[in-house]
C-alpha cells in the first residue's frame, strides 16, 4: 500500500524544523529576541522564507496572531507569508494584521475616520477617479486663462502624492520634478487645495489620503496611537529600503510602545528614489534605534559564485551602505561575459544570436531576460528580435513604438506622409491646448473635404470658423505643420523629428507626461534612429514591423507563462530572476545615466541599480558595451565604458586581481 503524506495545515502538528529549513543566518533572525531588529537581506538570500518563519516562530512562542503586524508592499506577498506560516504551526495565523501600508491604513481608518472629519463609510477612489475629479477642479479653479498649458490631471495627482509622501513642499517638488512649471506654483496650489476640499466634501479618499489619515490619527490623537502601538507586540516590515518618509514615520509611531520592530530589506537594492522612496529610512535605522541589533543574510541561493564576485566587487564602491558580501550556495558556473560591440545595431545582432544559442543549449526563452537602464536602449533590439522571429514580452510597459509620446510624434509624420490618415490627424491636433474632440472633428471635416488636406491647413476660412483658444492653438499648429511640410522636401525624417522637438510639441510632452526628460530622451533616440532612413515611407514601414505578433506587453506585476524573452527596465526587474541575463548599453552617460555624473548620491543609486541588474542572473550574465553611437547628423561618437565597468578594470590592474568577467572579442 502506498502512503501519501499531506503538508501540514492549520490545526495539524507543527511543521517547524529550524535545522532542516533554515541556514544559520536565517535561524538567528527567526529566533531573535525582542527589541528593534535590522535585517540586511542581500539579493536571493531567502528573505521571504525567513520572514514567514519569523511569524510562525512568534506565534509558536505564544504571541497571539492578532498582536502581530506584518507590512509588505503587495497584498499577495502578505497572504502568501501568512498562509505558509499557518501551514507550519498548529495555530491559524490568518488572524494577524498583514498587508500593504494602504490596506492596513484603510482598516484603521474604518474605525476612526470620524476623528478626521470623514464618515466611516468613506469611498476609496482609484487613480482614474482621482484624475477625473482633478480635471473638474482644474475647470472650477478658473485658471484656464493662462497662456501656458497646465500640467495634466494625472501629473497633478502625482505631484500632490510626492509632496504628501516625501514631506517636500509644493514649490520644491515642482522645481525638482517639473521645473518648467515652477512659475505656475500659485494656480497649481489653488487646484490642489480645491481637490482636497472636494474629496472631503464627498467623503472620498484617494490612496495617499489613507496614509496621511493613518499618520494624522497617530500624531493628532494620542489615544489612537497608544491603542494600536500597545496592541501590536511585534511589527515586521518587508522591503524596508523602499519605504518613503511618511511610511517610515508611521512605522516608528506604531512601534512606540513595545519597541519590537523588525525591519527587513537590502540597502543595496534601494533604487526607487524617483518614486519617493527614502533611502535614509534604512540607512539611519541604527541612529533612530541605538539599541537595535543587526543581522545579515548573505548566503545567496540564486546566482553562481562568478556572478556574485562581480556584484560584490562593484557595490563596494558605494560609501553609504551596510557592508555585506554575498556568498553563493550554487556550484561554479561560467564567467560573466563583457562584450565590446561596434554600435547598438551590432549589440542587437549579438543579443539575438546569443539568445538562439542559449535556446539550442537547452535554456527556455522564458528564462532569458534583457535589461536596460532606459527604455530607448531597447529600440534596435526590438526591431532585430522581430526580424529574427524571437518572441519577446516587454515588462516595463509598451513596446518602444507603442508608447504614447512616441505615437504623438509619429502622428505628425504619418499625417505628412498620408494626409488622408484621419487617426493620425486627430491624434496630433488634440495635443494642442483648447482643441478637444469636437473641435478636432470640425477641423478634420473641413480638411478632408479639400482636394489637398495639407495645402488647406492655413485656409483663412478654416481659421475663421474657430474661436477662443481653439483658434489660437490651430494657428500655431498650422504654422508647425506648414513648416514640416516644407522641410519634408529638403530633409530626412530625422530632421523632421528634430524640428518637432524644437517646437511647441516639447511643451506638450512636458505638460502631458511624467518624467518628461526621459520621454524627450526617447524622442531624441527616435530621431537618431530615423537618421538611417532617407524617406518617411521607409521609416514608417520599418516601424510597422513592431506591430506584428512577435512582441507582446504585460503590465507590471503580471506573470507570464508562455515562451517569450523578457525585455525590462532594471527598475521593473527587481525581485525577479532568470537563468540568463543581458544588460544593454553599459556606456558612460547611458548606464549610469548622464545626470548622475556630478552627484554622488545619484551615482550611488545608479550603482545600486547595476547591482540589482547583475544579481537577477542565475547562471549566464552578459554585459554589453556599444563603442559608438551615431548622432542625428551622422557623426559617430565614441562611448567610454560604464564607470561601473571601468572602476573594476582599474582595480584589477592596480591590485593584480583577475577581472570578474571574461572579455569577448566580436568577429563580424
From TrEMBL:
One of its GO terms (cellular component) is cytosol. GO terms for molecular function: 3'-5' DNA helicase activity; ATP binding; ATP hydrolysis activity; DNA binding. It holds the Pfam family UvrD-helicase. It is an enzyme of class 5 (isomerase). Residues 20-304 form the UvrD-like helicase ATP-binding domain. Keywords: ATP-binding, Helicase, Hydrolase, Isomerase, Nucleotide-binding. InterPro entries: DExx_box_DNA_helicase_dom_sf, DNA_helicase_UvrD-like_C, DNA_helicase_UvrD/REP, P-loop_NTPase, UvrD-like_ATP-bd. ATP binds at residues 41-48. Residues 305-575 form the UvrD-like helicase C-terminal domain. It comes from Lujinxingia vulgaris. GO terms for biological process: recombinational repair. This is DNA 3'-5' helicase. Coiled coil: none annotated. PROSITE patterns: UVRD_HELICASE_ATP_BIND, UVRD_HELICASE_CTER. Its EC number is 5.6.2.4. It catalyses: ATP + H2O = ADP + phosphate + H(+); Couples ATP hydrolysis with the unwinding of duplex DNA by translocating in the 3'-5' direction. Belongs to the helicase family. UvrD subfamily.
Amino acid at each position: 500500500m502506498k502512503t501519501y503524506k499531506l503538508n501540514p495545515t492549520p490545526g495539524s502538528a507543527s511543521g517547524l524544523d529550524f535545522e532542516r529549513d533554515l541556514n544559520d543566518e536565517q535561524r538567528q533572525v527567526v529566533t531573535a529576541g525582542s527589541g528593534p531588529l535590522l535585517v540586511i537581506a542581500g539579493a536571493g538570500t531567502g528573505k521571504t522564507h525567513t520572514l514567514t518563519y519569523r511569524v510562525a516562530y512568534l506565534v509558536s512562542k505564544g504571541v497571539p496572531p492578532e498582536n502581530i503586524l506584518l507590512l509588505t508592499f503587495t497584498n499577495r506577498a502578505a497572504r502568501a507569508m501568512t498562509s505558509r506560516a499557518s501551514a507550519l504551526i498548529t495555530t491559524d495565523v490568518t488572524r494577524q494584521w498583514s498587508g500593504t501600508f494602504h490596506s492596513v491604513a484603510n482598516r484603521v481608518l474604518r474605525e476612526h475616520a470620524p476623528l478626521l472629519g470623514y464618515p466611516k463609510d468613506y469611498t476609496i477612489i482609484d487613480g482614474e477617479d482621482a484624475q477625473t475629479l482633478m480635471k473638474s477642479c482644474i475647470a472650477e479653479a478658473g485658471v484656464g486663462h493662462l497662456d501656458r498649458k497646465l500640467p495634466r490631471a494625472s501629473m497633478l495627482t502625482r505631484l500632490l502624492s510626492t509632496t504628501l509622501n516625501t514631506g517636500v513642499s509644493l514649490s520644491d517638488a515642482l522645481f525638482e520634478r517639473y521645473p518648467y512649471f515652477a512659475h505656475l506654483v500659485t494656480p497649481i496650489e489653488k487646484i490642489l487645495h480645491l481637490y482636497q476640499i472636494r474629496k472631503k466634501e464627498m467623503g472620498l479618499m484617494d490612496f495617499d489620503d489613507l496614509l496621511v489619515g493613518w499618520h494624522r490619527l497617530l500624531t493628532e490623537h494620542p489615544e489612537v496611537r497608544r491603542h494600536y502601538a500597545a496592541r501590536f507586540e511585534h511589527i515586521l516590515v518587508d522591503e524596508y529600503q523602499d519605504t518613503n518618509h511618511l511610511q517610515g514615520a508611521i512605522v516608528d509611531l506604531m512601534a512606540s510602545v513595545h519597541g519590537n520592530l523588525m525591519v527587513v530589506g537590502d540597502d543595496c537594492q534601494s533604487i526607487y528614489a524617483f518614486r519617493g522612496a527614502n533611502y535614509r529610512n534604512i540607512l539611519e535605522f541604527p541612529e533612530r534605534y541605538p539599541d537595535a541589533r543587526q543581522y545579515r543574510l548573505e548566503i545567496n541561493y540564486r546566482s553562481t559564485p562568478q556572478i556574485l564576485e562581480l556584484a560584490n566587487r562593484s557595490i563596494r564602491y558605494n560609501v553609504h551602505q551596510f557592508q555585506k558580501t554575498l556568498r553563493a550556495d550554487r556550484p561554479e558556473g561560467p564567467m560573466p561575459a563583457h562584450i565590446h560591440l561596434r554600435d547598438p545595431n551590432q549589440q542587437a545582432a549579438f543579443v539575438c544570436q546569443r539568445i538562439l544559442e542559449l535556446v539550442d543549449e537547452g535554456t527556455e526563452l522564458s528564462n532569458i531576460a534583457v535589461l536596460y537602464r532606459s527604455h530607448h536602449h531597447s529600440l534596435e533590439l526590438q526591431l532585430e528580435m522581430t526580424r529574427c522571429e524571437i518572441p519577446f514580452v516587454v515588462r516595463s510597459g509598451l513596446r518602444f513604438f507603442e508608447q504614447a509620446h512616441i505615437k504623438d510624434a509619429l502622428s505628425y509624420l504619418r499625417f505628412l506622409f498620408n494626409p488622408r490618415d484621419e487617426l493620425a490627424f486627430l491624434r496630433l491636433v488634440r495635443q494642442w491646448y483648447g482643441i478637444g474632440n469636437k473641435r478636432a472633428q470640425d477641423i478634420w471635416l473641413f480638411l478632408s473635404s479639400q482636394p489637398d488636406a495639407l495645402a488647406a491647413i492655413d485656409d483663412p476660412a478654416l481659421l475663421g470658423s474657430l474661436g477662443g483658444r481653439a483658434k489660437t492653438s490651430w494657428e500655431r499648429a498650422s504654422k508647425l505643420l506648414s513648416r514640416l511640410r516644407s522641410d519634408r522636401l529638403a530633409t530626412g525624417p530625422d530632421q523632421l523629428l528634430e524640428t518637432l522637438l524644437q517646437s511647441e510639441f516639447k511643451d506638450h510632452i512636458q505638460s502631458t507626461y511624467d518624467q518628461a526628460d526621459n520621454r524627450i530622451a526617447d524622442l531624441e533616440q527616435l530621431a537618431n534612429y530615423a537618421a538611417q532612413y532617407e524617406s518617411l515611407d521607409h521609416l514608417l514601414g520599418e516601424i510597422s514591423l513592431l506591430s506584428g505578433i512577435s512582441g507582446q506587453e504585460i503590465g507590471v506585476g503580471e506573470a507570464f507563462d508562455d515562451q517569450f524573452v523578457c525585455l525590462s527596465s532594471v527598475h521593473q526587474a527587481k525581485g525577479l530572476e532568470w537563468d540568463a541575463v543581458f544588460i544593454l548599453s553599459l556606456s558612460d552617460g547611458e548606464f549610469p545615466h548622464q545626470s548622475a555624473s556630478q552627484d554622488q548620491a545619484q551615482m550611488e543609486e545608479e550603482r545600486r541599480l547595476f547591482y540589482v541588474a547583475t544579481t537577477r542572473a542565475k547562471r549566464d550574465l552578459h554585459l554589453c558595451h556599444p563603442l559608438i553611437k551615431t548622432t542625428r547628423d551622422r557623426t559617430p561618437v565614441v562611448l567610454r565604458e560604464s564607470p561601473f565597468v571601468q572602476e573594476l578594470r582599474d582595480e584589477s590592474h592596480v591590485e593584480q586581481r583577475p577581472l570578474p568577467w571574461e572579455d569577448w572579442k566580436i568577429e563580424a
